[in-house]
Structure formats: structure tokens, C-alpha cells
């Protein structure tokens, strides 16, 4: 595919509908597929991230205004960058924000908690994160930071409802967040801090170049 196509859109009644052209593309794939979808609030860089995963500068619509550019769910099938003979299916979703767009269907609603059985692994993409993991001046683990980030705020204002909505969804559909690289991350942070201190201590006194020669 040279560019993404609309996979799921809404009809005049506001109900989801699958685009037949997108289904025909999927039906023509006769090899293993890896599906990657991104969700989150609008204007947070989801489309940009998916373009990077596709190895392209452009593709999924980007915007520089406060309005959401992606409507519905868009699909882009590209060769997997690592696994030969595998197709990477990228799904870019419409950003979450406006509570007016959340509406119940006239038909009997299914228990959304049943979706947990079919959901894949949850990956939280942290952008431009260079701060120390501390809360109230106390060191915390990655798990504790995630729990803190997902904590709900009390209140009934529109702003608080919008703030709590994505956190409630994550807590409902993903009950555990195992982290396997905790020790590696902690060690990396310690070594990075030590290296920075050593550099700052010696770099401005290395008039004869002895410190730099020690790295050769």
C-alpha cells in the first residue's frame, strides 16, 4: 500500500461501518500479519508515531491545529521491517476528547468487559520522558509511577470527566502491567548519572588532554 485507507468509519446514524475496500486489501494478504494499533487523546502525536513505524515521513494525516485530523480508524499495510514474509498492519484511531461523541446504541449493549478476552498486550509509549521517577521527593518504581499516572481525580466537572475517561478505560480493559526491564532501567539511570558527574568534574580541567586520552 502506498498510503493508508479508511478501515472503519461511521454512517449517518453514527454507527460504525467497515469499508469494503479495506476488507478487500486484507483478504489479499496470504502471509502472517502483525497488527499494531494506537489510541489516546487527540493531538498527542499518534499519527506521527504510526508514520515512523511505517518508516515514512508522511502517510497518516498530521495537523498543526487543535482539531483532530484522524476520523474513524485508518489502516496501512506495509512489509514488516524485521520479519521477512510478514505484513505489518498499522491502525491509526481517532483521538479521544469530546464526550458528546460518546453515545449508546439503540440495540442491546454488550458488556464491554468481555472485550478483555480479545485485547492484545498493552504498550504505553512515553514521549520525551527524561525526568527522574520521583513522587513527593521519593523514588518510585515504574509500576508505582504508572499507578500514579492512572489515578482518578474526584469531581463531576466536564474537565475532570475528560481527564478520568481514558484512565478508566485503561484500568477496565488492562488489569496488569508487568515490567521486565525494571532492573536494567534502574542500572542504566545510575550509570548515566555517574558518567555525567564524572564528565562535568573533569572536562573543564583537562587542559593537557589526559582525560580524553583515557577513552582511547
From TrEMBL:
- A Pfam match is GBP
Keyword set for this entry? Answer: GTP-binding, Hydrolase, Nucleotide-binding
Give the SUPFAM superfamilies listed for this entry.
Interferon-induced guanylate-binding protein 1 (GBP1), C-terminal domain (SSF48340), P-loop containing nucleoside triphosphate hydrolases (SSF52540)
Which lineage do the record's taxonomy fields give for this organism? Eukaryota, Metazoa, Chordata, Craniata, Vertebrata
Keyword DNA-binding attached: no
GB1/RHD3-type G domain location: 30-96
Q: Name one GO molecular function term.
A: hydrolase activity
Q: Which domain of life is it from?
A: Eukaryota
This chain's source organism reads Cirrhinus mrigala
Record protein name field: GB1/RHD3-type G domain-containing protein
- What family does this chain come from, according to its entry? Belongs to the TRAFAC class dynamin-like GTPase superfamily. GB1/RHD3 GTPase family.
